[in-house]
Amino acid sequence: MLPKFHGLAGEDPHKHLNEFHVLCSTMRPQGIPEDYIKMKAFPFSLDGATKDWLYLQPVLFNTWGDMKRMFLEKFFPASRTTTIRKEICGIRQHTGETLHEYWERFNKLCATCPHHQISEQLLIQYFYERLSMMDKSMIDAASGGALMDKTPAVARHLISNMTSNTQQFGIRGPSQSQMVNEIGAASNQRLENQLTKLTSLVRQLAVGQHQPAMVANVYGICTSVEHLTDMCPTLQETESDQPENVGAIGGFQYGKQPYQTRPFDNL
Length: 267
Known about the structure:
By secondary structure, the chain is mainly α. The chain folds into three domains: 13-76; 80-169, no CATH class; 214-267, no CATH class. Helix content is 56%, strand content 3%. A two-stranded antiparallel sheet has the order 1-2. Strand 1 and strand 2 (252-255) form a beta hairpin. The longest helix has 35 residues, at 176-210. The chain is rod-shaped, with a radius of gyration of 47 Å. Residues 244-256 have low confidence and may be disordered. Residues 41-129 form the Retrotransposon gag domain. This is Retrotransposon gag domain-containing protein. Pfam families: Retrotrans_gag.
């Protein structure tokens, strides 16, 4: 049974032509050119407005190549080619997307526009540059260095092997929520460590500011019997050289204090 093309927005004309080609190549009678079979059978693969378009053409198609070209110009215009070229150039691996899923999506996108006119070297480069860091590192390790140092054919073969392995073992990158949670936990831990250090520093500064200054007080002894101890000129000179206030410790004032006579001073 022939595949049908209706010309709807979601239909792929290139896919229709490929399916039509496979069917015609298998049903071709011996001795009849394949292009002749395609020209006669192609109108029956169209339906609705697409069949009307074909029958309303002002000129007849002499070759299968002309019919195919006019079909693509109508249902795959240049504007659509430009859009798909931009999508190919900006291809990017989605968060949580496996290497196999990304590679398959990339190949399907390229297949929707076979005449994108992008070289194989650039195709591999676009695919490789937008890989996740984990998958890019795995491919570089498998290639023995950098993938882009390989030829396009070798690079494509290596990527195909890697994607088959990821499909078999189900290797999938971390999800966006997991990455956000891990980054948030690490940031919170760093913040807690900084707050702990800052609190300790403030406590040390507070203790240092409230620490009373310990100033040594100098006491003199008079050995003369010619005058009272509090009238000793030598001790008076020593006391005059000390500060008036040297601080308080335990509520007891140090410094100049009135002399109190002790019983043994006049002995």
